[in-house]
Structure formats: structure tokens, C-alpha cells
Amino acid sequence: MFQTIEYQADYINWDVLAMRDGSLLRDGLGIEDIRQTMEIKDKNRLARVTVLHDCLGCRTFEVPPSAAVRDVKRRIDAEAGLPPAQQRLWHRGRELSDDIKIVDLQKSQNQIFLELQSKGLKGGGRFGQTTPPLVDFLKDILRRYPEGGQILKELIQNAEDAGATEVRFLYDETQYGTETLWSKDMAQYQGPAFYAYNDAIFTPEDWHGIQEIARSRKKDDPLKVGRFGIGFNSVYHITDVPSIFSGDQIGMLDPHQTLFGPHESGQCWNLKEDSKEINELTDQFAPFIGVFGSTKETFKNGNFPGTFFRFPLRLQPSQLSSNVYDKQKVLELFESFRADADTVLLFLKSVQDVSLHVREADGTERLVFRVTASENKALKHERPNSIKILGTAINQYCKGVPSNSITCVTYHVNIVVEDESVKDAQKTSWLVCNCVGGRGMCTELDCLADELKFVPTIGIAMSLATNEEENGAVADFSGRAFCFLPLPPGEESKTGLPVHVSGFFGLTDNRRSIKWRELDQWRDPAALWNDLLVVNIVPKAYTTLILEAIKRMETEKNSDFPLSPERIYRLWPDENKIRVPWKPIVVPLFKDLLQHTVIYSVSNQWINVEQVHFSEMDERLEYTQSVLNYLQNSGKQIAKVPANIASAVHLTTSAAKAVKKVTPAVVRQVLRKSGHSGSAEEKLHLLEFVLSDGVYSELIGLELLPLQNGNFIPFSSSVSEQDVVYITSEEYPRSLFPGLEGRLLSDDLKPEVLAALKEAAKSRGRPCTQLQLLNPERFARLIKEVMNSVWPGRDVVVQWYPGLEEKKHPSVSWLKMVWKNLYIHFSDDLSVFDEMPLIPKTLLEENQTLVELVRFRNPSPIILEDESETQLPEYLADIIQKIGGVVLKKLDISVQHPLIKKYVHPPLPSAVLQIMEKMSLQKLCNQVASFPPTHKDALRAFLASLTDANEKEKRIIQELLIFKKIEKSSDESVPVFTGLKGSKVLHHTAKIPPGLRFSVPIIDSSDEATIRLANLLKIEQLKSTDCLKFVIEDIRSDFYSYDEIAQIMQWVLENLTFLKMRIQM
């Protein structure tokens, strides 16, 4: 007990102390003997000198007992910059001279408290700012520092800094005895408590550090992130009297300074040296037995191989805090820790096991929650070796060893979470990359590292998900910021990155968030440090992680957590989602990444960005896969990347070196160079794509133009008629042009393809392709081409076998469609279709096997003999056909047109004469001359119905040998026919001798038809007297024989009276 007494009080009542240790008096030892014994025992131990000063605070130094006061002053000067001449050290109310030995100040223990006074500005009186009372100081910490799961994280961090591998938290409901305590005031701290255990042992520095509440040990050692700094003091949210058991010592802290004497803020016991007092205060130390492997044997042996803290719950408000704790609040503390417990171990190097336990009042203990970090068997050495390399790099940096490169290590780690409320353990797997910047990479960063005692370390972790989880947890992943441990959940800890980022960041005072260079802390060194860390180290660490993920995807294809290109692509940040402080990583990260083979091609290869053509084609489109397959088979490297990768490429690629994409222009270029020998379906897919940008002039030479016959021909700029390819439409359907499939664009095309080809066919000055849209003129051209192909001759009437494939004849519906188009588009003029066999001689029926068609001719040889109208006289139909005409009984209903009457005439003489006009007059006359008398009579009678005639018609009628001569043939029953031309017409009232011959043809006009025609043609008609004049002239010219003259004269005499009357008329 004497070795733990602090000599700051003005005096010590040795009698009281002796009476509290009766065993010493029973042994007959006096006070002086005890003092001498203790001095011998401690002569080789370092003395701990604690110096108190209103401005400098509390400073503790370890010095040899032989050291003098001047040595302590030198230590104060070295640390606080206060010259020894300005220092005045006081002990127990008296000022010490420089020569006094420390050993002379020691009594029964090796710890001495001195009070430091320094001269004012002019050498007299006390001067300087003061620190608030300890309780007030801690209360301020608690106001700023969060309550909740972060308390547990701080304790884990302390364990990590100590090199511990295991941390256990325990809520203990046990009520311990209150009889043998240091004082009766300690009774209230013997009940329920919260414990924190780790398997590391306190060092002397730790024992010092935990007493220095305003100064974290990391100031001296950058490798210690938070050793008992402000973070540790957050335990005062829970307790008023935290205690520590580690190695051979137990310490208790009392910030209220009421339990261990005036101005005493704690007490410490050594298991061996204070064993007697420990054994007497059994209830006081009972809470340190029976937990975490600590037993009575532990106390007997004088060493506990680990560390645990005991935090008795604050059961009633105190001056320090009004926050009262009970079991429910401890479990809530556990629950708040559980929220992100699966990532607590992610970036820790030492701690691999954290568990939460509850011990009930009856002593039964249960596991509430546990999280462990481990490696796969195949990679069991990877993480330890990586951490060793990382440690070496950190040491090198701290020692100032120059290196302008970054040291990165990557390892796989499994995090397993066991929860009492969940049957099966939850396992997550991670790929973690930790990096240490080299000294020399950034001068400003190095300077800040020395000033702040920081190290430029960064860790990046990606979640590895099984294939089943790919679309779940990974898709919803939200990256957070860590400072070795996860920062408290909330908006400030979110990064907007698809990975977790840990770093040696400068944090705000309450350690809840990272400092950033905002207006109020633009020049803050820690904020500047964080900015530099983000710009210089994070991108390189991030790049390393992605490259390592790619490497492992290739080499660990059969691992438990296989990587995929999609998963790796999701590692790339989306610049639109990144929180503002992290945006500076974007450009350097992307630039660094794109120097490597980080693009996954459709041929399953990781390639460089310069090699690839990026596809932004819609996967839902039918042609996409065909286009990509074609390019790939043509030797192009194709990649389909998500939006975040495409954005990264665009962001970092210079204008001079444009990103190569899969575009219609690229495909057209490849097609010109390599052609295409694939299927028709693939060609159509390629055609659809190369048309999509509307640059139709670049189609020339591409063998992708689909014809109706199934062939593909090259696009051409030729305007030659034989090269034209016509585009059919609803107005001009393909079925109109049978046999011309090689001249027509395929009509089995998608609407969008057809629309594009129609655009390509439109003329902008000069057509850019051989495609042409059908119009009336082109329709007529093609119809004539069809007909000339099927009926190549010149016959007026042709044979049509509708739908007969052998002859390639069009169907009945075809002719109907033709007439429909003639009606619509050629209502004013049908002359372009002259000589085309378009008029059926009979009515059309779908099942007909043979139909005769009549060609359009002008004048038309077609006469329509419609039963409902005027009918042709007998023999006329035969006559018309013999002179080259065609007689129709009926006109099919499909043959409707405003100009049809120009080509299909009614059965009128004028129409027949029009037909006759087409023949040469000689041929016509010969043909008519060959007619039998019945036909001649019928024709004469038909022509006689004319009411008027033009000169040409009159000339034709005059030439026709259809008029009967007066004279008889040898066969008196067969009349002799002649033409009006060169003949005389006997008036129907005239009388002449019977059987009389004339030297000129005399036409008998005894029939009405002859009379009408003679009158129409104004042919002179001979009367009886006129005939006698011809006879007299013929008699004079000896035309008649003697007998004929005698007969003539006899007839004259007999008809003299009649003749006289005619002469008189």
C-alpha cells in the first residue's frame, strides 16, 4: 500500500497508515524501519515525477532516483520550451533548489508530485491561463463526443493500437460484495458493469497515456491512432469510475477526485507489491476475478496476460454526467454497434475477433453477437504477409526514408457475423487494398505528416458477393469513410463511392467526421492533409484495387467468391454520385486506370482503351448482337460498358484522341474493307444499323441492298435505268410488277429500315443511291417492262394464262390493280400505255386459265358490242375481226377509266372506219374484196348509217368493193361488187335496157344503203337519159355488138314516152 501513496499532500499521518496495516506493527517494525526497507527496495526503480502547472497542465517524467531537480527542469524545457531559469519547482509547500536529489524527496513510493511556478512577464507573481477542473474538462468532452456504438469502436481502436487480436465486451449484472472496500463510497460501483477486454498488455506508455486526458499518445507515435485520447474518455458516458486491469497492475480513475483523497484522480495497485492490500480488500477486487480468464491464481502469480476495462454503470446522476445507465441502455449500446459491426474489422491489422456477451446475475453467460475476420485456407498467408509489408513501409516513411512510389498490398478477408437472434452466421467477403505513400511523392503532404504526426495511409475495400447476391447487397452498396474504424453512420460518412475508404484522416474534435477545407477551416492543417490524401493517395490505392480485382478474376476463376467484369465495373465511381469532398479523386483515378487493360471486351479479354470500340447500342434491339458479332469477327475489339465506365472514358479522353465507338460509320468502313458473307438476316441487321445515322451517301459500295428476289446488291450512285432499284409501296405494291423482283427493293423490311431507304431514295439535287420511289411515270415504265417481258410480240390480241408459273404470267388480281392505278394516276392520258395488252376480251374470273388481252392502240381496234346497248348487225363482228378489229361482248368491271371510250368504241360505222384506217388501203380493199356478198352487203348497210364522214373516211368508203354493179356475173346468182371510186351510180328511179353493158362501172342503187352512201359521198347518180347518153357514145365507139344495139334501140322505142318525160324534167 505504501508504494501507491502520492506525496502531494502537505503532510502524511504515518500513525494512521500504520494502524491500517496492523501486520506491520505486529512484526515489531517502526515507521523508520519501514521507510528504510522501502528505500532499499526501490533504489533501482525509476522515479515518476508528475509536474503540475496551471498553464502547461499535467506532465509526467520518468527519471533515475539519483537525478536532481535541475534534470527535471531540463526535461520540462525540452518538452514545453520553458527555460530552467524561469522555473520554480515546489514540493510540499517548499521551493526546491536545483541540487536536491529526487531520491531525497521519495518516501515510500517512487511517484512524486511537484508544483511548477514560472515568473511573470517582469519576473514577479503568477501569470498564465489555467485549465478547468478535471470534471468540467471531461464534461466538455462528453458534450462533443457521441454516445453509442462509437464508444465500443474507440475501445477496439485502442486494442488495435496495442496489437491485440481479440476484443470482448461484457455486460455483467453481478452484484459484488461491499464489505472490504477501499472506502464505503466505493460500494455504489460494485454492481452491474460494462467490461471491455483485449488480449494485449499495457505498456508503461499506455499507463502514462491513459492519465493524460488532453494529449493522445499518437502525438508521439503516428502508428497509434487513438491511444487513450479524447475518444477513450467517451466511456464517461457510462461510468464515473473506470478501472483497468492489465499485466501486473490494476488502476482506477476518479475524475471527481473524491474516492482516493483530495485532488487524487485515481489509484493504482501492483499485483505483487500490493498483494497484501489486495488480499484484504477482497470485495474491492472481486469484479476482476472470474472474467476473461482472470482467476485468484492470476492474482497470486501477479500477472494477467491481457487487458480489460471495467466500467461500473452510473446508477444515479453525478457531477460529471446525468446520464444513468442500466441493462437496457447497455443492450442499446450493443445494438448501435451491431449496425456496422460487419465492417469494424475491415481495415484493422491486428484485431480479428470482437464479441459481445451478457452475464446474468446468476452467473450464466451468453454470447449476444460476434464478428470475426479470417482468410480462406488457400490464402491464409496473404493477409499477414501484406500487413507485414505495410508495416515496413509505414516505418520507412516515419523514419524519413525517401521513396517516390506508393506501397500497396491487397488481400482477401472474410467477415463472419454471429448473432444470437439469427440461426445462421452471416458471411461477407472483401478484397482490401492498403497503401502507404512514399516520402517524396508530395512535399506538402510530407511536411504536414511531420507536423501532425500523421502517415499517408489509405485503405480501399470492395465487397465480394456470390452470384446469388450480385443483384442484391452489392447493387445497394453504399460506400462509407473510415478512419481505420467506420465513422458514425450518417450523411457525413457517406462518400458516394462504390467502395469503403479508410485513411489516416484528420477528424473533427468529436471524431465523428473528416475535416474538409471549408471557409471556416480553409487553412486548417488537418483539412489540408485530408485534401492532399484524397488527391495523391486515394486514386492510386483505388487503381491498385481495381487492377488487383481484374488480376484475381483471371487467376481465381474457381474461388468461392468469383469476380465478374460487371462486378469490377461497379467498382468504378459514378462522378454524379460522388460526394463533393471526394470528387478530386475522379480525374486522377480515371487517368491512371485507363493506362491499363481495364476494359473487358465481348471476346472475354481485358484490353486497353485505345484498342476498343465501345458499344452504346441498345441490347433490346434485334440488330445489336449481329452488328457486334460482325465487328468482332472482322478483328475489332468491342466492349459494352455501363454508364459509369463510359462517363469515365469520356471525362479523361482528350479531344485529339477521340473515344472509338461502334457507330454506323465504323461498320460501313469495315464493310467496305472486309465485305460480309453472312446470312441474309445478318445483312438486314447490318443494313438497319448503317442506315440509322442518315448518312446515305456513305452507303455506296456496301453490298447490303436487299432485292425482292432475295439477293443483295451493292448500293450504287448510278442513274442508269438498268441499275435503278424501285421501292414499292401500298400505292404501288410489289404484286404489280411480277417478274421484276430483281428490280425491286424487298418489301419484307422493318418499317424503320424502309423509311430510311425511302429517305436515301429522295433526290437532293442528284440521287445519292440507285434507289427510286415509284411515281406514275416509273410505274408506267415498270408495267410496260412486265408486259413486254410476258408478251413480247406485236399482236393485237395476246394469250394470257393467269397465274401460270411456267409462263410467269401475272394473276387476275394483277390486272385489276393495274387498272386501279391507271384510274388513279392516269386519268388524263393513257398514251404512255399504248401497245400494252391491258383490255381483256372477256369478263375476268379468278379461276380462269386463259384470257385474251387486247393491246392499247390509237386508234383503237376495239369495238364493244354490249347487249344492253346497240348491237352489231349480222356478219359485222366477223368483218371487224377480219379487218384487224376486236369485238368485245362485255367490258370487265375493273376496266374503268375516264378515257376508256377512246380505246373501247361503241359499234358505230365511224369506229369501224377508224379500224380500217390502221390498214393500208390496198390491203383493206383486198381484204374486203375477199368477203362473201353477205358480208359486203352487211358492211355497206352498216356504213350507210353514217350521218357524216371526213374526207379520209369518204375515201375509204369509195375504195371498198362493197357496191353492186349493174352487170351480172356469169353466175347470175352472184352479184358483182365494185367500189365507188371510178364508178357511176345509177339513180334508183332510172330505167335502162335489161342486161345492158356499160363501158364504165355502173353501180346499182336499188338498195337504200347504196343510195345513202352515194348521197353522203356526193357521188353523181345517173338518170335514164344520162345513161342513154353513155350508151350512145358507146355505140359510136363500137362498144356494142349489132345485136346489142338492136336490143337497145328496141328498148328505147318501147320506153320513148318515159324517156321524153325524163328529158322534159
User: What characterizes the major β-sheet?
Assistant: 14 strands, mixed
User: Helix count?
Assistant: 35
Strands across the major sheet, in which order? 10-9-8-11-7-6-12-13-14-15-16-19-17-18
Distance between the termini: 189 Å
What can you see in these coordinates?
- The protein has 1065 residues and is α+β, with helices and mostly antiparallel strands.
- Among the domains are: 71 residues, Roll (Ubiquitin-like (UB roll)), CATH 3.10.20.90; 237 residues, 2-Layer Sandwich (Heat Shock Protein 90); 182 residues, no CATH class; 104 residues, no CATH class; 145 residues, no CATH class.
- The strands form 10 sheets. Strands 10-9-8-11-7-6-12-13-14-15-16-19-17-18 form a 14-stranded mixed β-sheet. The chain has a 5-stranded mixed β-sheet with strand order 2-1-5-3-4. Strands 28-30-29 form a 3-stranded antiparallel β-sheet, with no helix packed on it.
- α7 crosses α12, α17 packs parallel to α19 and α28 packs across α31.
- The longest helix is centred in the middle third of the chain and has 18 residues.
- The radius of gyration is 61 Å and the shape is rod-shaped.
- One of its GO terms (molecular function) is Hsp70 protein binding.
- It comes from Hirundo rustica rustica.
- This is Ubiquitin-like domain-containing protein.
List keywords for this structure.
Ubiquitin-like (UB roll); Heat Shock Protein 90; 35 helices; 14-stranded mixed β-sheet
What's the SSE blueprint?
Elements: H1 14-20, H2 22-26, H3 31-42, E1 47-53, E2 57-63, H4 69-80, E3 87-91, E4 94-95, H5 102-105, E5 111-118, H6 134-144, H7 149-161, E6 166-172, E7 193-198, H8 204-209, E8 243-247, E9 249-253, E10 266-270, H9 275-280, H10 282-285, H11 296-301, E11 304-312, H12 327-338, E12 353-359, E13 365-374, H13 382-398, E14 407-419, E15 426-436, H14 443-452, E16 457-464, H15 470-474, E17 481-483, E18 485-486, E19 500-503, H16 525-536, H17 538-555, H18 565-569, H19 586-593, E20 599-600, E21 606-607, E22 612-615, H20 623-633, E23 637-640, H21 643-652, H22 664-674, H23 680-691, E24 705-706, E25 712-713, E26 725-727, H24 751-761, E27 771-773, H25 776-790, E28 797-800, H26 812-825, E29 837-840, E30 851-855, E31 862-864, H27 876-882, E32 886-888, E33 904-905, H28 909-917, H29 921-929, H30 933-943, H31 951-959, E34 963-968, E35 975-978, E36 984-986, E37 1002-1003, H32 1008-1016, E38 1021-1022, H33 1024-1036, H34 1042-1054, H35 1056-1064
Parallel strand pairs: 1-5, 6-12, 17-19, 22-23, 26-27, 31-32, 31-33, 36-37, 36-38
Antiparallel strand pairs: 1-2, 3-4, 3-5, 6-7, 7-11, 8-9, 8-11, 9-10, 12-13, 13-14, 14-15, 15-16, 16-19, 17-18, 20-21, 24-25, 28-30, 29-30, 34-35
Helix pairs in contact: 7-12, 14-16, 17-19, 19-21, 20-23, 22-23, 28-31, 30-32
